[in-house]
């Protein structure tokens, strides 16, 4: 397998293989979502943390994240304030996005979020983003789930396990 040099990142001591294997999906996505929503500059975790705390207080919903889409998107958009953005970053509910026409008239914004696009927009800061998120994992601020490990020879069993609905654990291949 060949990977572009810009997509590689160092894994510091204190970060397990399981954590490193999950790094490029959920932790980076959360960082990108928060940075995009808050307009915080990369590397300013404290500013992003304050934005999350301030927007979580009170009855106002000034933004939302949705990884499901489909029918769930209608409820998520309906819960946001007029003018509030919703970043959609997945389609677990299917390929069709459903929203109420009234929400369009209320100027609610649905914006796509693609991790690849976000990282591309970071340009030279990309490695700084990688290092910042990896440091949060290393320091235990971002906690990632452990999972079941399977030898590479048991790839079929591992794949079947990963497809189980409601699985609480990640599946890792070793070897």
TrEMBL record:
It holds the Pfam family ADH_zinc_N_2. GO terms for molecular function: NADPH binding; oxidoreductase activity, acting on NAD(P)H. This is NAD(P)-binding protein. It comes from the Eukaryota. The keyword NADP applies. Keywords: NADP, Oxidoreductase. It comes from Coccomyxa subellipsoidea (strain C-169). InterPro entries: NAD(P)-bd_dom_sf.
